[in-house]
Amino acid sequence: MISEPENILLTQTGPRTPCGELMRSYWQPVALSEELPGESAPLKVRILGEELVLFRDDQGRPGLLGLHCSHRGTDLSYGRIEDGGLRCLYHGWLYDVCGRVLEQPGEPGGGANRHEIRHLAYPCQEAGGVIFTYMGPGEPPLLPNYEFLTVPAEQRTVSKIFYQCNYLQGNEGNIDPVHLSFLHQYLKEAEINRPRIVPGSAATDNALLGKDLAPTIEVEVTDYGLRIYTVREAESSKSYLRITNFIMPNLSAFGGSTVGEGYAVHWHVPINDICHWKYVFMFSRERALSQDLRNKNRAEITPDYRLSQQGANRYQQDRESMKTKTFTGMGLNFQAHDAFATESQGVIQDRTAEHLVSSDKAIVAARKLLLTGIEDVKQGREPRHRIRDPKANRFPHLMVISEVVPGSIDWKDYAKKLVEERQPSTGPVS
């Protein structure tokens, strides 16, 4: 368990909070590109406890401004997109994407002192079907060139899901290997649509995860965060090896439906301290994604990005189906399982009451990295994985593996060789 002050430190992300300052040191998703199509109305958003307005100017550039007009506080999300910016409906003040006041039309000469006002504005970039923002001080770092942001559009998909809980417990679910043997287990494999056969085996991942409930887990610190090795016993003296990743400060990469040719990512972005958006990415580096895979990434999500299964309807649990179909009785949607597990902990999990065990080592290690990052920012140092050097802005070593391997191999050496195969001759191996 951790202390109450540490729990507060890790979970409060509003303005001027230590963890909030850490989050603001990185680019964060603020909306899906599809939420702001060309010539759309401005979008009222909340991120890291701040009320903001996201819009595209008449050149299509995304801008993120403070929600309330610098004149008399009127809501800018009702404003007009015109003349190179966003115009307030109350007195016509016009703002560009950088927060400059271009016009004060009710003032002589269009506002002689308008240039002295700088409205709150955060820079934006668009990549991988997502609009990102940097909300920290000073020169922004580089937006990471993750594969899932840079492959062609037909080879990736992204959506988001509202979760009624703190970002931290959402992301900690991604780096907990043991829960896969329980929370997501299908008791009748015939229920699985197109089950995945694990390379090196004749068995499905569902069967292998259900066979060995107490895997060996090891954690390795990397430049981006943590590489997590999980090894389970498989058939004929073989091992089921899974490698997943915690990426500073609030995302994780793991297998998913494209593992072997890509992977899935969950990026947990605080709305405030009691709810967050989980951005769900999936990509392939080899081929266009099928419509089935695209549909799977949005299964049972409403048009406003909420799950149809939620706490208000007890996640539609069917206790009869617990006998023969699924461990949870909550159907086949992994996202609903995750929502149940993390939301039912309370909006902010009380970590002072938990009892961590040996299989929680990745969670312990990730918390330590976050606490170190918070201290780094406090002391004016660059936190881990804040990228400044363009030569370092590539991640072939951020790998995800899910395959059966000979039980006799050194699986860390095996992973290192796979990393080296994906590196150019001069690249670092982490």
Please explain how this structure is put together.
The structure is a single chain. The strands form 4 sheets. Strands 12, 13, 14, 15, 16, 17, 18 and 19 form an 8-stranded antiparallel beta sheet that branches. Helix content is 18%, strand content 25%. Strand 15 and strand 16 form a beta hairpin. The longest helix has 18 residues, at 361-378. It has helices spanning 4-11, 18-23, 147-150, 167-172, 205-211, 291-296, 334-343, 361-378, 411-421; strands at residues 27-32, 43-47, 50-56, 62-66, 80-82, 85-87, 94-95, 101-103, 121-122, 124-127, 130-134, 156-163, 216-221, 225-233, 238-247, 251-254, 262-272, 275-284, 401-406. The chain has 9 helices and 19 strands. Residues 425-430 have low confidence and may be disordered. The protein is globular. By secondary structure, the chain is α+β, with helices and mostly antiparallel strands.
